[in-house]
Amino acid sequence: MKNKKITLKELASILKVSVSTVSKALNDSYEISEATKKKVKTAAIKYNYSPNLLAQGLKTRRTKIIGVVIPDMRAPFFIRVLRGIEKEASKKGYNILTCFSNESFEKEKATLEMLSQGNVDGILMSLSKETQELGQIDHVNEIMSNGIPVTLFDRVDDRIECDKVIINDFESTYFATKELLKAGARNILFISPISTTTIGKNRYRGYAFALREHGNLEEKVLSIEEYKDFSADLNRILSTEKVDGIIAANELTGISAVNIASRHGLRIPEDISIIGFTNGLLSMNSNPPLTTMSQHGKEIGRVATTKLLDRLNNSKLDYTTTVIETTLIKRGTTRLGF
């Protein structure tokens, strides 16, 4: 019997209480005493009881599952966001169903259609690069018109009326550029593989504004279309132009820039200073460790999950946009006294 799963009715029979009491105890109802809750939960573990989520969904019209749609499974930032989502969802009694759009509009659209077939109560998502390039939002609005709430994080679209969680992308890159300028850099290159996304555009704007404010310094921009060409493109720029600072729009680009500049013969940070985004293990363990603007991915995931669950409990709440402030993490790719 130890390995065989039992039903709610069987668990109630073992405990000699009603099915209703067991159900309420497992759902932390205020109607049930703490002693009874503890007794029921201990027995549920002992007798290998687990709730039938599908059956619960049929009765309550809730699956207790949140769909999560992420553009890139390789990006350290999204991994950190996912950890924040999972932790908060689990704390509130929800499971997550994670899907990846792989930066494709069609994949994203198909994923939303799949999730809308009664599989989830709500959806957390960051728009794919292709979706933002095409300016398509109908597939997201259609999901919400069918009664499934959506909370957007990181990559959002102002035309979609929903809850959103973002960072201060413009201000973050403005601040990072100003820090390089204060450290003496005057020829700062902005590198981005996400130029067509909202966050990529806002980060470029912050960089450009800081240069204009500092006396209309010349912009130097490298937009990455294919990472396989990145090394050759950056080497070409370093060979033909004076560059003493780099702002990278994400973590992978920042670390790659450190490696390419080092192989090019530049000393970091003596000859060139580099700042990236995100604060993952890769940044901490690069050589030298990468100075980054921490986006607090786990906090973004936690806040986005909280907003979605609040929406599920009260659909009449006003839509809000929460801005998570970034933090500069100073490491070895920027000069002493920085």
Using the coordinates shown, work out and report the CATH topology of the largest domain: Rossmann fold
Which value, in Å, is the CA radius of gyration?
A: 24 Å
H/E topology pattern: HHHHEHEHEHHEEHEHEHEHEHEHEE
CATH architecture of the largest domain: 3-Layer(aba) Sandwich
- How far the N terminus sits from the C terminus, by CA atoms, comes to 64 Å
The computed structural class is alpha/beta
Q: Please, what is the CATH homologous superfamily of the largest domain?
A: Response regulator
Q: Which descriptor suits the 3D outline?
A: elongated
How many domains, as an integer? 3
* Main sheet makeup: 6 strands, parallel
**CATH classification class of the largest domain:** Alpha Beta
Mean pLDDT: 91
Strand content: 15-25%
Provide the helix percentage.
40-55%
Number of strands: 12
What's the number of helices?
Answer: 14
Extract low-pLDDT stretches: none
Record the strand order, biggest sheet.
2-1-3-4-5-11
